[in-house]
UniProtKB/TrEMBL annotation:
Any single biological process term in GO: phosphorelay signal transduction system
InterPro entries tied to this protein: HATPase_C_sf, HATPase_dom, His_kinase_dom, Sensor_HK_Regulatory, Sig_transdc_His_kin-like_C
EC assignment: 2.7.13.3
Catalytic activity, as annotated: ATP + protein L-histidine = ADP + protein N-phospho-L-histidine
Domain Histidine kinase: residue ranges: 194-304
Top-level lineage group: Bacteria
UniProt keywords, alphabetically: Kinase, Transferase, Two-component regulatory system
Single GO MF annotation: protein histidine kinase activity
Annotated organism of origin: Coraliomargarita sinensis
Protein name, entry field: histidine kinase
Length: 314
């Protein structure tokens, strides 16, 4: 099993840095576009409106990539959400078929959960707009809830193909088990970290799940003491070929053993992690073996905490 330790950020130009930073938001837009396509099939009456919303979401993605102001983009997202959900609810009221009603209800529930995650991510972006590397305190249970919410949305989006559980006793044969442990050993028992680190860890754990077949396991362990933050993301997935481990942090690079796998991502998760962790003075370690899984470890030294630190409630 090969291991690579990274202490310097991968090269990215300004445009690539912005795309990497917006990686999570852009992924959610792609998920919404895919869900709308399915909704259009299930509710033909929404075909025209779905096409309009699809075009608007693509336009929003372009605006984000090109550096558009979030203050102008947010209202467009809220208007798009309101329009499509209103049309779905109207279709539900008019539909008489029990099976069609069930499909429409499932689409409404799924879209609501995706939009809820989407708006939280945009709110985080707004929070750190003036200071991209802002640090703050976050309670371990609030931190943990972030990941439970994300995986609940992923499980719902699977439409019953698999479950995702944080309790091994609840895991079925084709379900995922997520082992999530968070510990803060600082005074007050709160985590003290850059807001963007939460985004990095969400991306890494979501990718670990994506490249692990149903029935597999993903672990996230976060610990902070007086020296800094340590995190481990580990999976039982497909792994990375030895000669490509150092390449997977390059912008847009995907390992050869997963290139044909359909995915809504852009290959930026590890790029973003390596870029930010090393920029913060930390290090990122990648250990992997094909068909056995991948372990990603990171360490970030603590930044001095002010007397009245900001609190991330998320």
């Amino acid at each position: 099993m090969k291991e690579v330790v990274l202490t310097k950020p991968p090269y990215m130009n300004a445009s690539e840095q912005r795309i990497a930073d917006m990686h999570t938001v852009l992924n959610i837009i792609n998920i919404l576009i895919g869900e709308l396509s399915l909704t259009e099939t299930e509710v033909p009456e929404l075909s025209e409106r779905s096409k309009e919303l699809d075009a608007e979401l693509h336009a929003i993605a372009r605006a984000i990539k090109e550096g558009g102001e979030l203050a102008r983009i947010m209202p467009r997202i809220r208007d798009s959400e309101a329009a499509v959900l209103a049309h779905l609810r109207e279709a539900l009221e008019q539909e008489e078929s029990a099976s069609s009603r069930a499909e429409i209800k499932a689409s409404i529930s799924n879209l609501e959960s995706i939009f809820a995650i989407f708006k939280k991510r945009l709110n985080e972006l707004e929070f750190r707009m003036d200071d991209p590397d802002v640090w703050g305190q976050i309670a371990p249970d609030v931190f943990r809830q972030q990941f439970e919410d994300v995986f609940a949305a992923i499980a719902k989006n699977s439409k019953g193909d698999y479950g995702i559980h944080f309790n091994l006793n609840q895991k079925g044969q084709g379900d995922y088990y997520i082992d999530l442990k968070v510990e803060a050993q600082l005074d007050g028992g709160q985590l003290w970290m850059p807001l963007r680190l939460i985004d990095v860890l969400r991306d890494l754990t979501a990718n670990a799940r994506k490249y692990t077949e149903p029935g597999g396991q993903v672990a996230l362990v976060v610990n902070q003491d007086e020296s800094g933050i340590r995190a481990v993301v580990e999976d039982s997935g497909c792994g990375i070929p030895d000669d490509e481990i150092e390449k997977v942090t390059e912008f847009g690079y995907r390992a050869s053993n997963v290139r044909k796998r359909p995915t809504l991502g852009g290959g930026f998760g590890l790029t973003k992690a390596a870029w930010l962790v090393t920029t913060w003075g930390g290090r990122l370690t990648i250990r992997s073996e094909v068909d056995q899984g991948t372990t990603i470890k990171l360490f970030i030294p603590n930044k001095p905490m002010p007397s009245n630190p900001p609190v991330f409630k998320l």
